[in-house]
Structure formats: C-alpha cells, structure tokens
Design goal:
Blueprint lengths: L13 H13 L10 H20 L4 H8 L5 E7 L4 H14 L5 E7 L4 H4 L12 E6 L5 E5 L4 H12 L4 H15 L2 H13 L2
Parallel strand pairs: 1-2
Antiparallel strand pairs: 1-3, 3-4
C-alpha cells in the first residue's frame, strides 16, 4: 500500500510535536477534540514519560547496526496524540532510531486530524495508537507497520479488558510493564521487522 502525500499535509517532526504538547499544556489543553481534565492529566504524565525515555533509551546494538545500514531514503509516519500513554512510551524510541541515519525522515501526524489515514491502520477495528508506518520516501510505499503496542503487552491488555479490569488499574499495569521492559521488547519487534523487510 502507498500512502497518499495529501494525508501528510499536517505532519510534523518530533521536536515540533514536543513543543506543541508543552504549549498546549500551558493552556491546560492537549491534542485532539477531547479537552477533559482527565485527558489533560494524561498528557501531562506523558510529557514526563517522554522526557524519561528520551534520556534513558539505550538502542540495542543489533538494531542500531540495521538502522545505520539503511541506504535508501525512508519516511517513518507515526500516528499519535499527546494524551496517549502508549505513544509516550514508543514515539521517543522511534525518534532515537531515526537519529541514527540521515536517510530517515520521521514525521508525526495527530490521529484525530488524520482519520482517513487512521482508518487504514485500525487494530481489531479500533483506531489504536501509536502506529508506525515505515515507507519508501520516493513513493511512500509501505515497507511495514508496527503498533500500537508490543504483542505481549497487547495480549495482556486484551486479557485485562475481557476480565473487566478497571481502566485506571489497566493503565497502571501497562505503564509498570513499560517501566520494567525499558523499551527492549519494542526494539526487538522493530529489529525483526527491519530484518525481514530489508
């Protein structure tokens, strides 16, 4: 599948995205149409999470080698939102990886501003984010996509939901998993995808 360039009209780089989130928080807001207090609180926590991952992420040597070896220009499109906790845990990893190779152009789009794009990447019929779409820059032909979570965590999430675990407890368990995992599983899954899709 090839992405349509018009769907990336509102795309931004990671630094611009982070500045947008900070600016919105100063006004007690976040991205997207839902401006409830709980969503804004999620966004505030997520800025803290992103800062932590930015500072602590350690790229696996084998993944670094694969990323540095990319010799055709790639555009990585990430569908995200400031209030999304999973995005806060994964998007900084994408950014760190993109910095390893000048041929990689990381572009972020907000889910609720690009629903036409999101509709092409539903997870079990739901607009779950983040979604990473790795494409060839010249044609925007998709190489592969990943998201919204590492597979083992996604299975854990579905199990909690089927057992009617309350949202707050589910969120706490998910972020405890991320804290313990230290982005390793996300990186391992990306390594496999890049290795299988040279």
């Amino acid at each position: 599948m090839n992405l349509e360039r018009r769907l990336l009209a509102k795309a931004m780089d990671y630094v611009t995205y982070r500045k947008l989130l900070d600016r919105l928080l100063l006004d007690g807001k976040t991205t997207g149409p839902d401006q409830s207090a709980s969503f804004t609180e999620h966004a505030r926590l997520n800025v803290v999470r992103m800062k932590r991952v930015d500072k602590t992420v350690q790229i696996l040597p084998e993944l670094q080698k694969v990323i540095e070896a990319i010799d055709d220009a790639q555009t990585w499109v990430v569908i995200t939102e400031g209030w999304c906790g999973d995005a806060a845990q994964s998007v900084p990893v994408f950014y760190a990886l993109s910095n390893l190779n000048a041929k990689i152009n990381l572009q972020l789009v907000l889910r609720d501003e690009t629903l036409e794009l999101m509709d092409k990447y539903l997870t079990n019929g739901t607009p779950s984010i983040p979604k990473l779409i790795v494409t060839k820059t010249e044609t925007l032909e998709e190489i592969f996509n990943w998201g919204p979570r590492p597979k083992v965590l996604q299975e854990m999430f579905y199990e909690m939901r089927s057992n009617n675990i309350p949202y707050i407890e589910r969120s706490e368990r998910v972020h405890a998993w991320y804290a313990k995992d230290k982005t390793i599983t996300t990186q391992q899954e990306l390594l496999q995808l890049f290795t299988n899709n040279p």
